[in-house]
Every structure is written in structure tokens, then in C-alpha cells.
Design a protein that fits this description.
The chain has 743 residues and is of the alpha/beta class. The chain contains 28 helices and 21 strands. Strands 11-12-10-13-14-9-15 form a 7-stranded parallel sheet, with helices on both faces. Helix 20 links the parallel strand 18 and strand 19. Helix 9 packs across helix 26. It is globular, with a radius of gyration of 30 Å. The two termini are 21 Å apart. The relative contact order is 0.10.
Length: 743
């Protein structure tokens, strides 16, 4: 949060163009305010030495340590054939571990004079291995003598801040730059209302900034962190509270179901009893629908918890009340699947205007981009006349030509797959703002829901319907134990022999990769995007549907009916494949993640996910939810080539160890930057969270939400709180404001 104009001085004016350029390009810091909010990652005590035993490989580290010994060696090389090449080896220690520093050539002279045994210094460099020993080659260093005015001034206080740094700008250089701009902290205008700050015993902002960068005691650090976390949580929650307040002022048509109407007729025909969770959540939704301002509710639930049933009952309630409901799905496969399952569930109630349709029946229409002209014309006509109470579609619903008779409810499935503008365009199709229900099968920890979806009320379905079977999950280490992979294909055959079906999921389609170089380039992308963190930079391309399907049909699954499904197939072909699979005419479906959400084939009991390490934790959990949807137990096999000790394997082990999506979502979140959580990909701005951790700081976020609601209720325009308004403007630049507006 770059709080005030006084702190908007460009760094190049204060620090000079060279340093400012590195800060801008490598750390995203442009102004004095940016630099003041670049907080230390941790602190070293000058009298204590760092643990050298736990240094991460290939990472840029800063350590404080003492020189144990230093030796200068001569050697022969192509440049110095007569043995005049020089290498300085310095061993540093923290009393527990040891680390070798290496300097070559002309670079040995200065460290040879300065790095004498007993000298303490800060060292920064990239950790590598040579002869099975950790080393830093040509590290930058800063002596910690404390004997000159300049050093005493620079490292004043007992604690040395270690900043997030880069190879081009070491931590202590950032520290020195901060020393230059720190006096400006006095001019930081405090965004927290005085009553809140005093009531919660928080430091004033200028004092917090001084203490975070120049602490004298651990208590200084704790006090500063507490205060700076509150800034981030509170300003963000005020933005969301203002959004909720503005929404509450909008008019909407109250939609109350008739006691003996369509919803009652539907409930009477249900062949099963709703779970207690489904009844509770439906009650919350019906209460919202009955009010005269728009519902904004997030419905999140475990894979297979029956969210579609809850959403359908909400849509029927709106149709009962004379309105129309639209269900927006992210893919054509999912839209067709929803249309099929909803018309099946409704039976004759979905045959409005047709011979044999029930008295209370309505029409349920499908609208996708690939429909034929005649079918599309009829669907559009049914919408504008009100003949169709329910429409299910993809982003084709958003086009200008689509007109509704009276749009009362928008249900968005898998919210994270839609751009903000798309949701906004659909909401704009009502005469008055329609009610909005957002569904996600990716469980979201409570704090994230409060932070990301803070303008939505949240309902949680965490109870699985009766008759759902457990899913056993196992990691298959194909590189270490190839016979495990052979056994995986045997298990697929066994499931098919029992009359069941199986999915095989691959990260890539395969027909776009005629050029092996292009494929090689793509390989890291699949992993990096899905959270494998660049572990696969030199790996083979991800496995592809078309190749794997051919290999399986000719090899381990010979004789079984194998089909493929992926996003670039023609919509009619995709639908035909899904229909055959649902009807049991296909034994094994080799697919991309197009089957990730909504696909419901209760007879499918096994899933093999190839290159599972290339998918994110939540995505694996979603995929796994496609099996075990019937009476027979499910089996999910996560195939990987990654070694046992790798972070990718740890992720897969976590997925295999629990079916609790909320637990997995915490793991997923802990492995990603906080900025990803706040939808930065959609808002296009840098993360506003630098101190706050949405998983660990649950109490701060919950308290900030309450305080923000009270402040906004008393003063929606923040006229009495100009400093807070300024902070809000800095957080919500035009793009971010728009993101929240439309979210």
C-alpha cells in the first residue's frame, strides 16, 4: 500500500538511476513508499551465527557467519598455464555447520586481505554443490566490524534485517537504501482510525515503519508486524465492506416460491432425501432471494457434495416467482452435462409447453456457441418470451443478442474460470440487478473466502450425500518403480472386468506438437502453471492424450474400448464421446482436464492421472472427484517421474493422504504466493499483501472485517476519515477498483 503522495517520490531522485532501475526491474519498487513497504524477510542477531546446515540449493541466500580459515591455492589453467591461476577458499562457520566460499582470479585479492579467521561478515550468493559440498562462488559480502562510524551507523541496533533480495542487489544494499529513505516514514499518514488503533493497542504507522526496518529488540519486530498486518487487512476489508454496502442499496425483485408450485412438485419427485447441509444452505439462499436487494452468495462445497441440487432448487424457486434463472458453465462439455442432468432430474417438469409436460412445468434450454442456427434461434426466442424458465450455457449467454424476459437469478459454476467482465455482462441483462449465486468445488479456507470473496456471503456444503463411496488414492512412482505403473494398468483392467469404467488424464492434447522444440518449451509451462514450481525445467514434454491413448490401446489396455476427449474437439464430437461414456459404451476415457468439473458418471470407478506432478493440488482433488460417485469404491492413481524427496512428490503424497478438500486447499495455498490468492492475475496489479498471510492471520482478518463493517456502516463515503480514503485510493487503483466492482 503506497499510502500517500508524500511518499510517492521516485526512487531515482533519491537513490540515483542505477539502483532505482534494479529495484524497479527486479523488486517492483518505484517510489519511496514502495521501498518503505519492502519489509525484511527475517532478522539476524549480530552476536549469533546462522544455521548453515539447512541452506536451500540453487537459491540466493544471505548468511551471517564467522571465517574459520582461508587458503590461497595456485593452479594451472588454459589462461594461466604455468600454475599462476589463483583460487581463494574460505571456510565460514556458525558453530554447527560449515560452508565453503570460493573466489577466483583477480577477485581473490580483496577477500584475501579482508576475510581473515575470526572475521564476522554477511555473505550473499547462490548456493551450489562442488565435490559433494555446499559452496558459494564469488559471494558478495559486508564486514560486520562495528569499528567505523559508517558501519555502526548502517548496522545500528542489535538486529540485522535480511531483505528479499536479488543477485543484482544484496540485502545489505537494500538496507543502506532504506537508511536513506527512512526519515520519510515520519510523513506517512496513518490510515487506521485513531479509535481503532488505540482500542487495539497498535503502533502509529511511522513508528511501525521505523521499528520494522531498524528494530532494537524482538518485541519491536512483533509490535511493528502486528500493526502492518492490520493496515493490509483493514484497508482491504474496508474496500470489500463498501462493495457490500453499495450492493445492499441496489434494488432487486424479491423471489419467493409458491407453496404448491414448481419447487414443491420437484421436491415431491426426488427419489432421495436432501442432506441436512443441503437443507440448511437452501434455507440461507431462499432467505436471500426473498429480499429486495440482490443476493451475492458464494456456495462452496466438496467435490460431489450436491451443490448442483442446491443451485437447481434456487433456480426453481425463482421460476416459481415468475422470473428466469441462468446457469453459466465454463465449458461446453460442462454446460451439456448440466443440461442433461437437470432435465433428467426434473423429468416432465422440464417439458413446459410440450405434450405430456406437467402443469407447473417450464422449459430448460441450452445455449452454447456451437449450436446450429435453428436451435439457437429457438432458444433465444424461448428466453425473450419467458417460455424458458431456466437457461444453461457457456459465455454464449453473454452475447449482445441474448435477451431475457425477466432474469431473476444468475448461477456461476466454477467462478474462478470466468473473467470479471463476463460475470458482469450477464448480471447486466436483468431489468434490475439479478440475484447472484457463485459455486465452486474448490474448497476455500475461511480467511481466503473473507479476503477474496469478501463481498459475498458464504455457504459451505461439507457433507457428502448418502451412497457416495470412499476413494483410495496412491502415488505411482513410475521412474523409481516401473512395475508399479504396470500394476496400475492391471488395476484398470480389473475394474473394467467388474463392469466399471476408468479415466486416464494427461496434461496435454498432443496434436499441436509436431515440433519437438516447441513441445520442449511447453513442458515447463504445464508444471509451473500448476504449482510444480519450476522443478521441470529440463524435463521431457508433458504426456499427451493422443499419444497415451494410442499406446494404451495397442499395449496394456489392448482389447478394451478406449476413446479420447479434449478441448479442441468439435462440440458435437465431445458430446457424443461423453454420451457413449455415460451410457457405458466406452471402457476407458483418455482425457485432458476437460473432465475436471461437473462430469458425473457413477459407473466410473478408476482414474489414472499421468504426470500428476504437473497439476495443482486443488486440480488433482477436483479430478479425483470424478470417481467414487456411485455405490462402488473409487480408485485414483497419481503417476509421476519425480524423485521421492522432491516438493512435487510431497504435494502428491498430501493429496493421496486425505480426501479433505479444505485441508488440501490450505496446503495448496501455503505453496503459492499470497498475490495469486487475491486474484492478481485478474486485477493485473502487484499483491497488496506483504505482511499479512491469509492462512496464518485468520484472527486479524476476521477482526478487521468486523471493524471495517462498522466503519463503513457509520460513514460509507469515509468523509470523516480522509487518511483511510487516501490509503484506499492507493490500494484500489482504477483497475483494481473495477475488479472489485465486477467481482
Amino acid at each position: 500500500m503506497d499510502l500517500v503522495p508524500a511518499l510517492e517520490e521516485p526512487l531515482k531522485k533519491v537513490l540515483g538511476p542505477a539502483t532505482a532501475k534494479v529495484m524497479a526491474e527486479h523488486l517492483g519498487l518505484h517510489t519511496v513508499g514502495d521501498l518503505l513497504h519492502h519489509y525484511p524477510r527475517r532478522y539476524e542477531e549480530r552476536g549469533q551465527l546462522t544455521h548453515l546446515a539447512d541452506l536451500p540449493m540453487d537459491e540466493h541466500v544471505t548468511v551471517v557467519a564467522q571465517v574459520a580459515d582461508a587458503r590461497l591455492h595456485s593452479f594451472a589453467s588454459s589462461r594461466a598455464p604455468r600454475g599462476r591461476g589463483q583460487r581463494l577458499e574460505v571456510t565460514i562457520t556458525d558453530g554447527h555447520g560449515r560452508l565453503q566460499l570460493v573466489f577466483f582470479g583477480n577477485g581473490v585479492h580483496k577477500p584475501h586481505k579482508e576475510l581473515l579467521p575470526g572475521t564476522r561478515a554477511m555473505f550473499a550468493g547462490k548456493v551450489s554443490v562442488f565435490n559433494r559440498r555446499l559452496q558459494l562462488a564469488h559471494p558478495a559480502y559486508e564486514l560486520l566490524r562495528g569499528d567505523s562510524d559508517e558501519t555502526v551507523e548502517t548496522w545500528a541496533g542489535a538486529l540485522i534485517p535480511i531483505y528479499p533480495a536479488t543477485a543484482k542487489l544484496e540485502s545489505w544494499k537494500i538496507g543502506k537504501a532504506l537508511q536513506t529513505v527512512l526519515p520519510s516514514a515520519q510523513e506517512a499518514v496513518d490510515p487506521l482510525p485513531a479509535s481503532l488503533r488505540e482500542g487495539r493497542g497498535l503502533l502509529p504507522l511511522p513508528e511501525a515503519l521505523l521499528k520494522i526496518h531498524r528494530p532494537h529488540t524482538p518485541a519491536d519486530i512483533e509490535d511493528a508486524r502486528s500493526r502492518l498486518k492490520w493496515d493490509e487487512a483493514f484497508v482491504l476489508q474496508v474496500a470489500l465492506a463498501r462493495r457490500r454496502h453499495a450492493d445492499a442499496q441496489l434494488p432487486a425483485v424479491a423471489r419467493r416460491p409458491k407453496p404448491d408450485g414448481l419447487l414443491a412438485a420437484f421436491d415431491d419427485r426426488l427419489p432421495f432425501t436432501l442432506t441436512e447441509g443441503q437443507r440448511t444452505v437452501s434455507g440461507e439462499i431462499f432467505r436471500d432471494l426473498a429480499t429486495e436487494h440482490p443476493m451475492h452468495r458464494l456456495l462452496q462445497g466438496e467435490v460431489g457434495s450436491g451443490k448442483t441440487m442446491v443451485a437447481l432448487r434456487a433456480m426453481l424457486a425463482v421460476v416459481d416467482a415468475g422470473g428466469q434463472a441462468a446457469l453459466l458453465a465454463p465449458t461446453e462439455v460442462l454446460a451439456q452435462q448440466h443440461h442433461r442432468s437437470i432435465t433428467e432430474m426434473m423429468g416432465e417438469l422440464a417439458e413446459g409447453g410440450l405434450l405430456g409436460g406437467a402443469e407447473d412445468a417450464t422449459k430448460v434450454v441450452l445455449l452454447t456457441g456451437s449450436m446450429g442456427a435453428a436451435a439457437r434461434r429457438q432458444a433465444l426466442l424461448d428466453l425473450v418470451t419467458g417460455e424458458a424458465g431456466i437457461v444453461i450455457g457457456t459465455h454464449a449467454l453473454i452475447e449482445d443478442k441474448v435477451r431475457f424476459h425477466d432474469l431473476g437469478l444468475v448461477v456461476v459454476d466454477e467462478q474462478h474460470r470466468f473473467g470479471v467482465e463476463q460475470r458482469d455482462a450477464l448480471r447486466g441483462k436483468g431489468k434490475q440487478p439479478p440475484h447472484l449465486l457463485v459455486m465452486t468445488a474448490t474448497p476455500i479456507p475461511r480467511t481466503v473466502a473473507m479476503t477474496v470473496f469478501g463481498d459475498l456471503e458464504t455457504s459451505v456444503l461439507d457433507q457428502l450425500p448418502a451412497g457416495r463411496s470412499p476413494i483410495a488414492s496412491h502415488v505411482v512412482p513410475a521412474a523409481d518403480k516401473p512395475h508399479f505403473l504396470a500394476r496400475a494398468w492391471e488395476r484398470v483392467r480389473e475394474e473394467v472386468e467388474k463392469g466399471h469404467q476408468a479415466y486416464v488424464v494427461c496434461p496435454r492434447i498432443g496434436d499441436e506438437d509436431d515440433d519437438p522444440k516447441a513441445a520442449k518449451k511447453k513442458a515447463p509451462g504445464a508444471g509451473a502453471r500448476n504449482g510444480s514450481g519450476g522443478e521441470d525445467a529440463d524435463r521431457r514434454p508433458p504426456l499427451a492424450v493422443l499419444e497415451v491413448a494410442d499406446q494404451l490401446a495397442a499395449g496394456p489396455l489392448r482389447g478394451l474400448r478406449v476413446e479420447v476427449l479434449h478441448g479442441r474437439m468439435q462440440p458435437d464430437d465431445k458430446d457424443a464421446v461423453m454420451r457413449r461414456f455415460a451410457a457405458g459404451d466406452t471402457d476407458v476415457l483418455v482425457a485432458t482436464t476437460v473432465i475436471e468439473v461437473g462430469v458425473n458418471v457413477p459407473n466410473a470407478t478408476a482414474m489414472v492421472i499421468m504426470d500428476a506432478d504437473r497439476f495443482g493440488v486443488s486440480q488433482l482433488h477436483q479430478l479425483r472427484g470424478r470417481v467414487g460417485r456411485g455405490a462402488a469404491p473409487g480408485l485414483c492413481l497419481l503417476v509421476t517421474d519425480m524423485p521421492e524427496a522432491s516438493p512435487a512428490r510431497q504435494r502428491l503424497n498430501a493429496v493421496a493422504s486425505t480426501l479433505d478438500g479444505f485441508e488440501l486447499s490450505r496446503i495448496d495455498l501455503e505453496q503459492r504466493r499470497e498475490g495469486d490468492v487475491l486474484g492478481q492475475a485478474q486485477s493485473g496489479t502487484r499483491s497488496s499483501l506483504r505482511m499479512l498471510a491469509v492462512i496464518d492471520d485468520e484472527e486479524v482478518i476476521a477482526a478487521a472485517r468486523e471493524e471495517a463493517a462498522a466503519v463503513v456502516a457509520a460513514d460509507p463515503d469515509l468523509t470523516e476519515l480522509p487518511a483511510l480514503r487516501t490509503a484506499l485510493d492507493a490500494l484500489l487503483d482504477a483497475e483494481r477498483e473495477q475488479y472489485l466492482e465486477k467481482g
